[in-house]
Design brief:
Elements: H1 13-23, E1 29-32, H2 36-44, H3 54-68, H4 79-89, E2 92-95, H5 101-112, E3 118-121, E4 135-138, E5 142-144, E6 149-151, H6 154-161, E7 174-177, H7 185-193, H8 207-215, H9 221-226, H10 229-253, H11 261-285, E8 300-304, E9 321-329, E10 350-358, H12 362-367, E11 382-389, E12 393-400, H13 410-426, H14 446-464, H15 470-500, H16 503-518, H17 530-536, H18 543-551, H19 560-567, H20 601-620, H21 627-632, H22 639-646, H23 651-655, H24 662-679
Parallel strand pairs: 1-3, 1-4, 2-3, 4-7
Antiparallel strand pairs: 5-6, 8-9, 8-12, 9-10, 10-11
Helix pairs in contact: 3-4, 3-5, 6-7, 8-17, 10-15, 11-14, 11-15, 17-18, 18-20, 19-22
Amino acid sequence: GGGKGGRDKGPSDCFKLVRTVVSMGMEPLIVFAFGKRKVEKLAEEMGTLELTVHTERESITQIYENAIQTLSDDDQVLPQVEKMLPLLQRGIAVHHSGLLPLLKELVEILFQEGLVKLLFATETFAMGLNMPAKTVIFAELSKFDGAAFRYLSSGEYIQMSGRAGRRGLDARGTVVTMVDGSTDLAKVREMLRGEADSLSSRFHLSYNMLLNCVRTETANIENLIAKSFYTFQLQQAKPDLERRQRELSAQLASPDLAVDARLLEVHALRAQERSLRKQLRPLLTDPKDTKAVHFLQPGRLVRFAREGGAGEEGEAREWGWGAIVSYKRLRPDKKEGKRGGDDLGTADQYHIDVLLRCDAGAEAAVEAGGEPAPARDEESAELHVLTLTLDRVDAFSKVKVSLPKDLRSSDGRHAVLKVLREVERRFADGVPELQHDEDLKVTTAAQEAAKLARRLEGVQERLGGVSLGEEEIAAGLAVLRLRRAAEEEEKRVKRQIREGQVALMKEELRGMRRVLRRLGHLSEDGVIGNKGRVACEVSTSDELLVTELVFAGLFQDLDPAQLAALLSCLVAEHGFGGSGGKGKDGKKEDPVAMIRTREMREPVERMRELAKRVATVVLEAKLPVDVDEYIARFATGLVDLVFDWCGGAKFADLCKMTDAYEGSIIRAMHRLQELLRPII
């Protein structure tokens, strides 16, 4: 196929697999995916799959109707409630944390009764609930853990795959894993052969814990830390860590990891080149300030930057030159049209279909909604049509090539691949690029673009003067990658050894005491004050900020609705918005200005000022904190919703105010209730 470039969409791979499993009589089955929207998307892909008979459908309908009778008339017509019954009647259901509690319980009952034959669930379904199935399918093996995407650990895989096989009913359980060309099979083998996750301490010293120990005179925080499972584990691991540190030091000193000075120069120059191209990109692709849109012609050769950029070692595979097929501009807001017909919008609104060299398995990656990887080598490259935005264009070429009419066939795309190779062979010194001044006509930022272009040219000249061949560079970068990995591991091991000596925790304890004294929770003699006693009662949110809000008198001028709306900032989860991310124009949004309820803007602004003061005190106490990140934690996405809720708004109307799931709203309300209870 041609990636996103115009193929008729048939049944998804997941649908085909489920249909095959069902035809073999291997239901009930659970399909695990990671993400609420992913789970619902997979359920929608099941099309007209029917897994129930007439009598089962009648039973499901009766149980469903009895369950929703406990909801109000308004809540019974919520989209989530109404969409559930047609799925359930076909023996299909979804289960994730965004569902209403009632619907989650309903799904669990129907699954236990054998009326739900196909369940799409997140990993939380595998935790604690005794809900076995005959077959388990993994729709994916990687998940976002809050910091980055990673493959499942062996323990996570064991926990979920353990749902396969029902005691007393099945001789064996069946686990099916979906993989594609982009799956790292080495990591999959490591996951399958690994052991269950070991028990590890998550001990965290909080201000609430410290203040409660001070208030209880018989408690000693130092003894508590010394006798904790956290300290025990660190001390037990110390001999192995010290041995590992010696091994890494010897490894780094060995000739096998020695790196040529010329290679380090290449690495540094490539990093500079990437940085300069990244700075040039918005200047060269701005539709309002350049002629970039005029060069989006079929057959024009362009070079795209890879999402996320190259790795630290400068060896990340790049897309290279590709050929434009077509483009279109997506207008996110019709209101923009009032500016006049000459409004060219922003670069990220221009979506370009382009033929690029991809690694094997690119088609499967596109179907899964991801971006395939660039080709590892020229021999195994596959040409596919990908859709990328104008703001990712690194360079336009002066070269245009002819494209065949049919790009859906592999023969047509292979013909273009041969043309691209011929162009690069003819221009051995580099494919000629359009200039920012003569061709792209950069106007407003002309001086800045010229300065960056001169610096980029200088870096490229220095790169060309390095006396190393491409093969030597590739081999050297592989060694450099190993050396950097060893250096990072050595740093991590040294840090763990320091933590094992408990010196780091003691330093953290001293810093926390400084914070509490400066904020007035403790006296200079270490005696707990009124502020500290209030902070002792707050365990569901940031105790320091809540205490500052109380003693600053901010709550005195607020009515109950405003008080609840303000405190919602302290319990808003990721997904409600209002944390000050980037808007459509790429500029950082003001979370306070995003609040619709005008009377809430001033209290929220004052709360953010107090949060900045708290973070500054923590920073001055030499404790690690990012002031901007600390303030952004208190998102404003729930303020309008809670304010209207307190004013008597219906739950259905609240759901229309946010993209968050109904279950997520209810969970946030419960957390807000827990926070309000000790305050009022």
